[in-house]
Amino acid sequence: MLKLKDISTELNSVELLARVERVIVSTGSNGSNYMIVHLADATGRVEARKWVVTDQDRELIKPNSYIYFKEIIPNEFRGILQLKIGDYEIWDEEKVAQKGFQNSDFFVVAPVNIEKQYANLMELLEKVSNPTFKALTIGLIKKYEKEFLIYPAAMTIHHNVTGGLFWHSYTLVKNCLAIRENYLYAAIDWDLLICGAILHDIGKIFELVDQTATDYSLEGKLLGHISIGNAELYKMAEELNIAKDESGKINSDLTLLQHMILASHGKKEYGSPTEPNIIEAVILSTFDNLDARIFKINDELTKVEQGSWTGRILSEDGKMYLKHYKK
Amino acid sequence: MLKLKDISTELNSVELLARVERVIVSTGSNGSNYMIVHLADATGRVEARKWVVTDQDRELIKPNSYIYFKEIIPNEFRGILQLKIGDYEIWDEEKVAQKGFQNSDFFVVAPVNIEKQYANLMELLEKVSNPTFKALTIGLIKKYEKEFLIYPAAMTIHHNVTGGLFWHSYTLVKNCLAIRENYLYAAIDWDLLICGAILHDIGKIFELVDQTATDYSLEGKLLGHISIGNAELYKMAEELNIAKDESGKINSDLTLLQHMILASHGKKEYGSPTEPNIIEAVILSTFDNLDARIFKINDELTKVEQGSWTGRILSEDGKMYLKHYKK
Amino acid sequence: MLKLKDISTELNSVELLARVERVIVSTGSNGSNYMIVHLADATGRVEARKWVVTDQDRELIKPNSYIYFKEIIPNEFRGILQLKIGDYEIWDEEKVAQKGFQNSDFFVVAPVNIEKQYANLMELLEKVSNPTFKALTIGLIKKYEKEFLIYPAAMTIHHNVTGGLFWHSYTLVKNCLAIRENYLYAAIDWDLLICGAILHDIGKIFELVDQTATDYSLEGKLLGHISIGNAELYKMAEELNIAKDESGKINSDLTLLQHMILASHGKKEYGSPTEPNIIEAVILSTFDNLDARIFKINDELTKVEQGSWTGRILSEDGKMYLKHYKK
Amino acid sequence: MLKLKDISTELNSVELLARVERVIVSTGSNGSNYMIVHLADATGRVEARKWVVTDQDRELIKPNSYIYFKEIIPNEFRGILQLKIGDYEIWDEEKVAQKGFQNSDFFVVAPVNIEKQYANLMELLEKVSNPTFKALTIGLIKKYEKEFLIYPAAMTIHHNVTGGLFWHSYTLVKNCLAIRENYLYAAIDWDLLICGAILHDIGKIFELVDQTATDYSLEGKLLGHISIGNAELYKMAEELNIAKDESGKINSDLTLLQHMILASHGKKEYGSPTEPNIIEAVILSTFDNLDARIFKINDELTKVEQGSWTGRILSEDGKMYLKHYKK
Amino acid sequence: MLKLKDISTELNSVELLARVERVIVSTGSNGSNYMIVHLADATGRVEARKWVVTDQDRELIKPNSYIYFKEIIPNEFRGILQLKIGDYEIWDEEKVAQKGFQNSDFFVVAPVNIEKQYANLMELLEKVSNPTFKALTIGLIKKYEKEFLIYPAAMTIHHNVTGGLFWHSYTLVKNCLAIRENYLYAAIDWDLLICGAILHDIGKIFELVDQTATDYSLEGKLLGHISIGNAELYKMAEELNIAKDESGKINSDLTLLQHMILASHGKKEYGSPTEPNIIEAVILSTFDNLDARIFKINDELTKVEQGSWTGRILSEDGKMYLKHYKK
Amino acid sequence: MLKLKDISTELNSVELLARVERVIVSTGSNGSNYMIVHLADATGRVEARKWVVTDQDRELIKPNSYIYFKEIIPNEFRGILQLKIGDYEIWDEEKVAQKGFQNSDFFVVAPVNIEKQYANLMELLEKVSNPTFKALTIGLIKKYEKEFLIYPAAMTIHHNVTGGLFWHSYTLVKNCLAIRENYLYAAIDWDLLICGAILHDIGKIFELVDQTATDYSLEGKLLGHISIGNAELYKMAEELNIAKDESGKINSDLTLLQHMILASHGKKEYGSPTEPNIIEAVILSTFDNLDARIFKINDELTKVEQGSWTGRILSEDGKMYLKHYKK
Q1: Is A31 on the interface with C (CB under 8 A)?
Q2: What's the confidence (pLDDT) of residue D28?
Q3: End of a domain among F106, F135, F153?
Q4: Which InterPro entries match (chains A, B, C, D, E, F) (predicted)?
Q5: Looking at F81, F106, F131, which one is the last position of a domain?
Q6: Do E218 and F252 touch (CB under 8 A)?
Q7: What's chain E look like in SS3?
Q8: pLDDT in tens for each of the 327 residues of chain D?
Q9: The complex's ipTM?
Q10: Beta carbons within 10 angstroms of residue C5's beta carbon
Q11: Does residue C173 sit in the same domain as residue C292?
């Protein structure tokens, strides 16, 4: 059976087993419905369309169902591969296992060695000298360790792969450390920056409905990961009994770390309730934005030929990018 | 001794005892410093200026100190009263008491019977039928009861008087109830609206440095009252053990109430990390804004003569308002 | 025969008589035209589509024509009911009457007792003490009484029902009066506010092509109801001979009332040529906006199931709202 | 006695008689008030300052008073001439006349032959073929002829000289006619354009307090010249009995001409309640803006030396302009 | 054979030979592709659609190919003519010539006598007294004379006809000269203005892929005509050896002329790297904008009937314009 | 003699020799002028004020003059050191030399070993494999080597120190290289990025009047460094004869490198005539902005005590930053 990355329009018809990621039912201008089905396996993603939709189709083709095609026809739409769904079968987990597949065969995974990098991160955090930053960061990471290592960073915008949340967060840490020697002249608290970087998106664990990220949760839609993360951090400080100092005043290091989360989108209009008021938050919000943009633009570039332009990228204000270079 | 409201430029010189609210040291274009001293007593506020500033002045004239003038000269600046500070004495609490004054003689107080209105509010909250809204709201109000009834709503923008936070919050509740019968056709959860209204600014208890509101706290500056209030509400749900429902999912009524706080500024650019996504949040954010505007514009109107215009009001995009009407 | 509110997708085919509200001819991507036909009767509105369009269809199916279906098929599009037009007949007024229907059977009507509320309004206006406000307001309302009581407030945005203009305007009056006791401390001229509220949209009588509001008039498109209303008010002052005071100067109360209309959209970018410069205009523009938003959001909420989200609402910057509550 | 244009810093002290245009009392950082006095005569304008201000000064030095200095000292502030007021006398009209001056000696006048150009304009209007445009335009111009020929176009922004309103309006007419032959290919109604151009600012007659333009009137501040002009035009149509056509419908040519006034600021954010929806309104709003900008920038350029930059120009978003060229 | 301008929906089927201007392949909601083919000849432009698309169609129907229809069916879409492509032939240049056509039969041409107007322009430039402006302008125009006289000014936005670049540029020159006499009072360097006007879009010769303007070039997309033009002007100064004055300083007249190009879009947000800082750049950018708007709005007006409205015009912020007047 | 960094308010009066960086003459509200004099030496910068200004002062105290104070009094303004100028002497270069000082004693210098880092850069550039990028970059750097190594990056905004242009540009190069290993998955042309980074501000050599950066040049003000740099790069390609490829088409690698300069401000509103359309330009513009922000915020932080806030920083939208950390 073919993997998604191996499908091309040069093949007339292929056999395929894939996981359904998202389903959108739309109505065409001829009055009949059609279905946009996002397929995924470990090797990539492809969009498919079913041009005739029955009630049965609506019931069967759901996010996270396994769909099997004896024959499916590769097509092309604006230069991008698209499959045309005819007959199909829905397989349950049992059958999938029977056929020798496992769950991980159907998820795109972050291209990093998470286990090893996580060990590196922990080593790094152990060396953080500020006790508040250290305790809160390790506390929160450990508390949500399982989700933190496996969740994607978003549904579609960026790092939407298994382990994407960790990949994105740890990349920010590594970027900060990488430029450190160029800014030794400046009054930057690198411990605060590293801890803020690794924690800034922790609320995404609640923002997404689950690790398959087929939707946002109610909390995600009504509160957003920034406010969730901030409240979780505050709760962790309570749990660790370090929310206040001895005099009963709020621990200012807790406040600083909360600010790193709250200001991580950089501007109020991007959802940050407060904008950076410390130099570390400027650096974090800059790298957060840069890392997401590189992922997204590169992702779009991989879909087109060298010398061509991507389609309009919504998160880039609708701009198109030129693929002038090939690795 | 005169009260601040009785001072006018028709008096040549007056005896005065007042509390210092804020002090700003500025440097004039002749190279010498001068001091802007905001004075307050129970009857109002007046700005004073000291045109020669010594190191001793800087040490003595501080927020919340009591300042006594045997003779101070009423002046006028752009049609607004201004005092010219010459000699002065700083009195300590003891001397103030000795002279027969008490603390409350030096704070402008909200023009409402807080005790009675608070009783009304509690009666109202007892009737809330949604158990989550009811428990969280009563829980949080009771927890911070003392501060909630005495804090102002802001340093300068609006309801900057003792009890201003309660006054502002409860006015929103009363406004919501007042228009209720005009919107019986609509799917509005009035319990959610009332509870959201009374809680929406609860974070201001931490945002201001203390009840005299001479400054914002570090948390206030780096986190803001919206994020503080949201985290406090979440913590209260934990304390009451209602953060999750039986199935372990987050209590959606908690989420709705958190959303009321987070969306209360209405727009991201005004500091709301999420914009209203439920009809109740639309109403709350509208009344929040309206109540603050009425207070502020009216406050500026009281400073000018009928037929005149106020100065530029910063929170009104610098617009000036006409005083065409006198109560 | 079924009423529109009784149609559901559970019915296979229904008999129907309805009024055509609007017709849009569009071309599908298969190159053939299709027709979007907005149907209405006293019980509600439903969208219908005709997927094959002939020249005869274009001539017959027009706004305000009565369309009869022996059999029409209920469909669903993105969870919202949609009818599929096959054969149809166009009935003239005579036939409609013959069949026992009357004009009012085909218009959605504001859910208020207009006659009674209008009497209340008049009683209220009689008590206005400012002679200019009183004379102008009663004069203008009386002059256009018939239209004022029957026109909708808009084609689609809000209060687009028979009597919607009065409903919306009088709701503003009632809202203002409802919050009055909470703002007794402020210098607000309630007479001016009430008169401004009832008059602020009077220009809509000219902005809409007629009471069925199938389109905007040329004046509506090129001038807008704000400028039309302002000129009508000025003309009324001329008619009543109160445009100028005895000294030949323009009557400042006329100017204040004109300002209430001109500033009713609150911001220049929303079409107000001048922004509020009196406190009454702040309140009016706030309630104008709030009342329209509540109507529109609620209208969208009624179209979806509890727990679901509305579609994107254009007048809410494309935001979607959650239906979390059911009356 | 010197004229204002002849004063320079090379003179130690000069004798001067001027009209006071505007007076601003400000308070310096040393706590004492000072007065900014804008002086004018037929040859130009100069700013003067009085650094010590008595109650008597406030009463005597008022807009439109005549002020006489036996000796006044020319100064320089950021390269711009400024006078320092010491002793002065206020002369009444009688004394001014006695000394051989007349009113027109104290007003800057538009550098055009208004009488002759007005004759040209009238000739032009007589040739307008559209009867509505012609009747309304001639009607309104004739009705306010005296003010139209003598009023300035603004207090400070542009064409703030006697006859400035006519000068500005007729320049727009001439500009439109000048480019006409370059746009013969386009469907432009030049009659509408010309009539709109000459009428677009007619409301300024009411917006300014009087022809000396020492302030804006209450109508000016609360309504603005655009809304005033629109209502005046509507009233004129009533007076001429051409507001409606025979069928009782509103005269669409009246509507078009009203649109020319309402859309003359081009954008809602600049105070136009409706933006251009006809090609003629695009041209008018463009020339309105261009003519005002040329006047203002040139006015600032005349104040500086060749090779220098103007100060920040508020109406140009604070930009500065280079004087690279000298006529 | 018919010309494009003679086609109407009253004809059932027509014979046609046209040039393909642009081709867009789109996918309909029934899953099949269709082709939008923009056709042109000397008499105008018409859009055609091919509803079934084969690989062969994609290869044959390309920009600048000649397409011949024995029979093509006129249709209508939203009141605008549209052709439905069935069978077709692609003719090569030879066959086109054989049939008696020439290249110029297939391009819409600017409605001006370019040869004569170019002679006028050159005469004008010969009279420019500033030697730098004169040398640079004549130098650059002469260097790219062929392209300058034949290129369009854009692909679609405005003056997208053969000779459009010259037509647009020279119209600006004529407009500037036309209003000159109304601004004799101002310090305007008319030589600079004229030279700037004629050169401001010279970079479009590189921005467009060739004179048929079927696409933008890579330089056009990555640099833009403003930056290209600026660099070309600088290079021309080097070639003429006038980039620096005798003292080795940069020739300030070169700088001024470069500024005219760089500031010609008026605002940074419209792509001008620097905004006007001289009065001449204000006038140029105003006329540049006005001329483009008149062309575009008029072009849209020609497509609709009198009394109707155009479709939404993207370059006018989506506004629609009323065709109230017919030449 | 004291160095600027050693002056504090604890000293009553100090002897001082410094270079004048900038002079601003302002007029106080008492009508007299005062002078703001920015002083610099190798150890830092301090603002001084002269409260009485004579014509002689204006002539003597000019940018780049050496000013000597036998006694000058340290003051404080809003917590920031300020000197009060009394008597002074202006020393010429000769006298400065006589006293044992040299030019470099009066300029703040970038805290990097420029010679060594420049060698590193050259080594790096030698390894660039793309011949166009390599030739253009080395060509341009070599051509303006002297200026490139010594110019500051701006007058005041950021890196306003000797060697600041190189320091800033090379830091971007080092930052890009530092994060490289975190983005090996992406299609990034690191050669293009590095060359773009080192060249992006090369136009500043012309934008500033000279290496002491006491003002911007006319080209700087009217063209800006982005447009200047783009034209210089184009000229260099001409000189190296690589502007076009063999087929006569423009060298697309030149175009890409020009785009890196033109898009380096990231947004049109920040002065980039074209926004990033390649992934490398996204990274460059992000680091350009980040490096400038870190410099500026850190610079402001050094002026205040730990626990305090900076003043409003204009380039940070007027935000203030907290100094919570000390190196």
Answers
A1: yes
A2: 66
A3: F106
A4: HD/PDEase_dom (IPR003607), HD_domain (IPR006674), NA-bd_OB-fold (IPR012340), YhaM_exoribonuc/phosphodiest (IPR050798)
A5: F106
A6: yes
A7: CECHHHCCCCCCCEEEEEEEEEEEEEECCCCCEEEEEEEEECCEEEEEEECCCCHHHHHHCCCCCEEEEEEEEEEEECCEEEEECCCCEEECHHHHHHCCCCHHHHCCECCCCHHHHHHHHHHHHHCCCCHHHHHHHHHHHHHCHHHHHHCCCCCCCCCCCECHHHHHHHHHHHHHHHHHHHHCCCCCCHHHHHHHHHHCCCCHHHHECCCCCCCECHHHHHCCHHHHHHHHHHHHHHHCCCCECCCCCECHHHHHHHHHHHCCCCCHHHCCCCCCCCHHHHHHHHHHHHHHHHHHHHHHHCCCCCCCECCCEHHHCCECCECCCCC
A8: 889 999 988 888 889 999 999 998 876 656 677 899 999 999 999 999 998 888 899 899 999 999 999 999 888 776 678 899 989 999 999 999 999 999 899 999 999 999 999 999 999 999 999 999 999 999 999 999 999 999 999 988 899 999 999 999 999 999 999 999 999 999 999 999 999 999 999 999 999 999 988 899 999 999 999 999 999 999 999 999 999 998 999 999 999 999 999 999 999 999 999 999 999 999 999 999 999 999 999 999 998 889 999 989 999 999 999 999 988
A9: 0.94
A10: 13
A11: yes
Contact yes or no for D294 and E275 at CB 8 A? no
Chain B residues touching A234 at Cβ < 8 A = 231, 234-235
Q: Do chains A and D touch (3 or more CB pairs under 8 A)?
A: no
Task: For E59-78, give one letter per residue: b (16+ CB within 10 A) or e.
Answer: eebebebbbbbeebbbbeee
Do A270 and A126 share a structural domain?
yes
Do E128 and E161 reside in the same domain of the chain? yes
For residue A97, the enclosing domain spans 4-106
Q: Name the B residues in 265-284 with CB < 8 Å from any A CB.
A: 268-274, 277-278
Both E242 and E209 in a single domain? yes
Task: Look at residue B51 in the predicted model and tell me its pLDDT.
Answer: 85
Q: Among B222, B235, B272, select the one facing A234 at the smallest CB separation.
A: B235
Are residues E118 and E100 both part of a single domain?
A: no
Distances (CA, A) of D106 to A125, B74, D37, D150, D209: 79, 39, 15, 14, 18
Mutate to test the interface with C, among D136, D147, D192, D223 (most CBs of C within 10 A): D223
Task: Give SS3 for F180.
Answer: helix
Residue with structure tokens 């218009």? C107
Assigned token pair, A147? 């989700």
Mean pLDDT of chain B: 94
Q: Quick one: closest CA in A to C82, which residue?
A: A31
Does the residue D253 lie in any domain?
A: yes
The two three-digit tokens of residue B255, written as one number: 């989420």
Check D277 against E327: CB less than 8 A apart. no
In a domain, C313, yes or no: no
Judging contacts by C-beta atoms under 8 Å, the chain A residues touching residue B132 are none
Identify whether E326 is part of a domain: no
Token output for F231:
């034209």
Q: Which residues of C touch A221 (CB under 8 A)?
A: 322
Are B138 and B97 in the same domain? Answer: no
* Chain D residues lying within 8 Å of F30, measured CB to CB: 28, 30, 32, 34, 51
The number of folded domains in chain E is: 2
**Is the residue at B145 inside a domain?**
yes
- Closest CB to F29 among B29, B33, B221: B29
The pLDDT of E103-109, averaged and rounded, is 93
Whether residues C94 and C148 share a domain: the answer is: no
Interface test with E, best of C29, C78, C215 (most E CBs within 10 A): C29
Distance in angstroms (rounded) separating the CA atoms of residues E10 and F91: 92
CATH of the domain at E18: 2.40.50.140
Q: Name C217's Cβ contacts closer than 8 Å, sequence gap at least 6.
A: C206, C207, C208, C209, D250
Q: Which of residues 196-225 of D touch C (CB under 8 A)?
A: 206, 217-219, 221-224
